[in-house]
Design brief:
The protein has 113 residues and is α+β, with helices and mostly antiparallel strands. Strands 1-2-4-3 form a four-stranded antiparallel β-sheet, covered by helices on one side. α1 packs parallel to α4.
């Protein structure tokens, strides 16, 4: 199970690097280390997480969007919702790459809106 956890954590850290590298991505939670799991909650500039989930869904990329049954935490963070990507044994570095490419496409779409 430690190998499973480590794989998810490694992919999450790669995703965090890609999200923050976009310049407008904000990640919530530990950035790395043993506290990090294979789950990344984030926002992407002015793109609402529900819009982001729809755009990614059209590209075959599944994420969750919303308050994740954690409304008090969302209030404390000052956000109404976040996007959440989860990684486990069935994911690969290519999945992380597809996520980041999808986020870039969403930013491009909203830049022209």
């Amino acid at each position: 199970m430690e190998h499973v956890h480590e794989h998810g954590r490694t992919l999450a850290e790669q995703a965090i690097e890609g999200i923050t590298g976009l310049g407008v991505g904000r990640v919530y939670g530990p950035m790395a280390g043993t506290e990090r799991a294979g789950v990344v909650s984030f926002t992407l500039g002015d793109v609402h997480p529900h819009d982001l989930a729809s755009i990614l869904d059209s590209r075959g990329i599944c994420i969750r969007a919303g308050h994740h049954c954690a409304q008090p935490l969302m209030r404390r963070l000052g956000v109404g919702a976040t996007a959440r990507a989860s990684f486990s044994v069935y994911n690969s570095e290519q999945d992380v790459g597809a996520l980041i490419a999808g986020l870039r496409a969403a930013l491009e779409l909203f830049a022209h809106a």
